[in-house]
Design brief:
The protein contains 5 helices and 16 strands. It is α+β, with helices and mostly antiparallel strands. The strands form 4 sheets. Strands 6, 7, 8, 9, 10, 13, 14, 15 and 16 form a 9-stranded mixed beta sheet that branches. α1 packs across α2. The N and C termini lie far apart (49 Å). The model has no long low-confidence stretch (mean pLDDT 93). Belongs to the pseudouridine synthase RluA family.
Length: 250
Amino acid sequence: MEKAYKILALQEGISNNDAKDLIDSGLVYAKGQKVVIARALMSENTKFSVQKLPKPSVIFEDENLIAVNKPAFITSEKISEIYKTPLLHRLDKETSGVLVLVKNDEFAKKAINEFKKMAVKKVYVAAVRGILSEEISVNEPILTIKGKGGATSKISPNGKMAISHITPLMVVGKKTLLKVGIDTGRTHQIRVHLASINLPIIGDEKYGKNRANRMFLHAYEIEFLGYKFRSFLPDEFGSLGFEISKKFEI
């Protein structure tokens, strides 16, 4: 028996640290199951499959900002490092879609003020387990607790106001593709709100208690200060059975 990351490092011809990062990012599978603990003891004959990480791409750039199409499995902070530009906001590592970076302090102050005034329009697409047949809004306060293992959020009367507007787009079997507009931007807001109405996001292990090859939450559109950026749905959403073209619009 040997630690998973060491076996993976030998198999892929990479460093132990790189192997740990791949496992921690949720990109490594063995016998059809995601490997979740890098130090887990496994047979030295274990064969791993590694999901390839898509590369980020620039949607738009000018003197004020860079709008990036962020893949799942990469942190917002890593995107900031790649483009050597500060973040305006963040997306969870597991979430794909539009991420905005700011290039000068003057514009950053204006943009941050728009977020504070809740004047930024944000639209996400989520694939969930369960069926929703009509529009619904969730107005439940969210409390976020930050610990060593990262942030965890929950609905609580002691939390901050959080509002999510949810619209069904497509139903396949017992899965629904949803459009989610948010007036607020609390940590893990969409994940917590959807789980609270028994519509957990597919692949959301933390709040939805289910596994998939990724978490199916995508930052589809953001609009503020005259700018409007969109990131079309990744191909993985089609793998769930939803009929999605290359430029599926909502």
